[in-house]
Amino acid sequence: MNGNVPSFLRKFVKIKTSITTSKGKKINAVYFVLPDYLSIGSDKDFARIPLTPMAAQSIADSLHCFLPTRKMVNDIYKAAKMKLEPVPMYAFRDSAVTMYQHNLIIEGQRRLRKGLIAGIKKDVVISGKIIRDHKPNRVAIYGWHKLDGNPIQPLYTGHINWYVDYSHGIRLVYSTIYINKKPMDYIDVLKDKTLRNLLCDEDDCDFYRYDTSDIQKIK
Questions:
Q1: Cβ partners under 8 Å of residue 153, min gap 6
Q2: pLDDT tens, 96-117?
Q3: CA 41, CA 43: separation in Å to the nearest integer?
Q4: What angle do CA 124, 129, 133 make, to 5 degrees?
Q5: Long-range contacts, 210-213 (Cβ 8 Å, 24+)
């Protein structure tokens, strides 16, 4: 929040999507996402930082943003200029050393290329599964698409919300969605039975944000 982020994370990238209603009406939408996962540091020395959903939500709130849905992660992958092969790691998955090593591997793949990047992390997402999971305090993750377009990680709420490992990434989405060029807040879009299909492909799209009060519980 003090601005210690690389310059490429200061400008959003446009994502376009559309649906056709049962009456044959086409609805277009545009939203804006970070070109890469949340990072700290400078352009020459930065690292992508996995976070708990509570910390990610706190940052998102401060920047008028939200976390993506499963459908949005898929749409971002389709739109990505750089689609990189996922690189799984198996030892000390939740250690800072592994997180940084994974970042170096991604940079080796990227080779200083610029633009919307995908396929390098599992996204922390919002999902109706969180509300309906029989266990409390869940985090939803999804993605890590292979080059054939299929995700390694299906939509999953098996981890408790304080669990973080090297594979988790935070992609921020600006909270204003443009529906046929008219601005709407993303929550209003998700509450609309028709428009929600622009952003969400689940049966239930009624989980909008993580509870940041849990940050204090962890501290």
A1: 122, 141, 142, 143, 144, 167
A2: 999 999 999 999 999 989 999 9
A3: 7
A4: 110
A5: 210/53, 210/54, 210/56, 210/57, 210/67, 210/126, 210/139, 210/161, 211/54, 211/57, 212/54, 212/57, 212/58, 212/61
- Which tokens is 214 given? 């849990």
- Quote the tokens at residue 134: 């029989």
Q: What is the DSSP string of 24-36?
A: S-EEEEEEEE-SS
Per-residue confidence at 215, pLDDT binned at 50, 70, 90?
Answer: low
CB-side exposure of 16: number of CA atoms within 13 Å?
A: 4
Q: Where are the domains of the chain?
A: 9-210
Sign of the C-alpha dihedral computed for residues 113, 116, 119 and 123 taken in this order: positive
Nearest to 169 by CA among 130, 150, 143: 143
**Token pair belonging to 5:** 């982020």
